[in-house]
Amino acid sequence: DKIPFQDKTKLLWLETPTNPTLKVTDIARVASLTKARENCILAVDNTFCSPYFQNPLDHGADLVVHSVTKYIGGHSDVVMGVVCTNSEDLYRRLRFIQNGVGAVPSPFDCFLAHRGLKTLHVRMEAA
User: Fold this and answer.
1) How far apart are CA 54 and CA 17, in angstroms?
2) Average pLDDT for residues 102-114, to the nearest whole number?
3) Which DSSP string do the residues of 36-54 spell out, in sequence order?
4) Which own/partner contact pairs does 24-28 have at CB distance under 8 Å and 24+ positions apart?
């Protein structure tokens, strides 16, 4: 029930379920421990579970990342990632970085990701 934070810890990165062992972590519990620290962000890699089965923002995560290349895309024809947040402050900070480095997908990549997203529910229910 304790996370061995160091004094300089600003970000806790969590993957659940883990790949390849499928260990599940209680996101809400980790979020409560993270929020007890000043200026510490909880980021959850939700690639393996997909947003269909798990929504870490609903359990207290500050950031959620997905590899669109995997389940969301569904066709192995797009290389993309996504970062989600409920925090206006984190959104603005990430948007500033994205704008500065030009990390945006092409319109065609967005079309491919959207096409895959439309069938995510069917693929997840069949899995």
Assistant:
1) 10
2) 94
3) TSTT-EEEEE-TTTHHHH-
4) 27/56, 27/59, 27/60, 27/61, 28/59, 28/60
Q: Could you give the CA distance from residue 116 to residue 94 in angstroms, rounded to a whole number?
A: 25
- How do strand 63-67 and strand 81-85 relate by DSSP bridges? antiparallel
Inter-residue contact 78 to 109 (CB < 8 Å): yes
pLDDT at 38: 86
> What is the distance between the alpha carbons of residues 105 and 111, in angstroms, rounded to a whole number?
10
Neighbours of 12 (CB within 10 A): 19
**Tokens at 30, concatenated:** 């980790």
Q: Nearest Cα to 116, choosing from 84, 83, 79, 71?
A: 71
Query: Of 55, 117, 53, whose CA–CA distance to 80 is shortest?
Result: 117
